[in-house]
Amino acid sequence: MQIERNVSVPMRDGVKLAADIYRPAADGAYTVLLLRTPYNKEDAQTMNYAHPAWYARHGYVVVVQDVRGRWASEGDFHPYAFEAEDGYDTIEWAASLPGVVPKVGMYGFSYAAAVQWLAAMTRPPHLSAIAPAMIGSDSYQGKTYRNGTFSLALLQSWVLFVAQDTALRQKRPDWASELTDLYAGIHAYYKRLPLNDPPAAVKSLAPYYLEWLAHPTRDDYWKATSLRDHYGSIDVPALHIGGWYDIFIDGTIENFTGIRRSGTAAARDAQYLHIEPWFHMPWSRYVGELDFGPEAANRIDELQFRWFNR
User: Fold this and answer.
1) Class of CATH domain 2-139+226-309
2) Hey, which end of the chain has fewer CB within 10 Å, N or C?
């Protein structure tokens, strides 16, 4: 296997994103699998998936990229704001790499699933299939708010987690340490009021958190990045992967049924739904005290291998 680290990927506005590329050892032309993540490309969501090297050994060129403003990539991080354009540019860049068949598939769960849908909405010519897992249908309902109520535990814990990398990028280890302490005592942090007056570190490192609070209704701010408003733009085959105990299961099912109903003619019959008795992470046969047996063991890589081969 051949590995290229921190390859620079230029975006349309000049920002350069960093990617690691894993290639099969044998010469030849191979199709591409792309994982775009805000959680460190070196980790590559291996708490649920096999390492990218596994997919490379099975005949794919695998590209794992840090999204804009995260880890080794340039730019400023604003959740979802640049993922449609950056996804399009990265897909077309990957399709032009030497030694590849110009067909790109995408995989990943949670945020790394949302970026697949946002890219698919722009219809990159060389995007051939996706496998989004554990993601909802709407940036407002079910993610940031649920029936008008702010998703406090989900979002406050997420912001404290992701903002730590931003603090280190800004050379503020004091803020990173403060965020780590807040995260460790998260249950006390949940009780902090008012919501729109978080610690200075959060205000400075995650201004999008205050934006979310400033938009308590489903207005145009949310519709811009909402998949449910763009089902008609989807023209790519998709393997929707969900968990019965996942926070986004209702949205995952809605995506499947919505695109089968409203996607392009080519996409409607190319949507597949696979649900396991899993929660958000890690994926296994165990949920709390329940054991769903060996049939519920995590075989996601086998499933995705069959999907992308098809």
Assistant:
1) alpha beta
2) C
- Classify 204 as helix, strand or coil: helix
Q: Are 114 and 80 in contact (CB under 8 A)?
A: yes
In whole angstroms, how far apart are CA 9 and each of 6, 42, 63?
A: 9, 16, 11
Which residue spans of the chain are classified as CATH 3.40.50.1820?
2-139+226-309
* pLDDT tier for residue 136 given thresholds of 50, 70 and 90: very high
Residue 84 buriedness (CB in 10 A; 0-12 / 13-18 / 19+): buried
Burial state string for 179-193 with b = 16 or more CB within 10 A and e = fewer than 16: beebbeeeeebeeee
Q: What's the rounded mean pLDDT across residues 21-41?
A: 97
Burial tier of 97 (Cβ tally within 10 Å: 0-12, 13-18, 19+): middle
Backbone phi and psi for residue 133, each to the nearest 5 degrees, phi listed first = -125, 145
Could you tell me the pLDDT band of residue 62, with boundaries at 50, 70 and 90? very high
pTM: 0.97
Q: Are 233 and 239 in contact (CB under 8 A)?
A: no
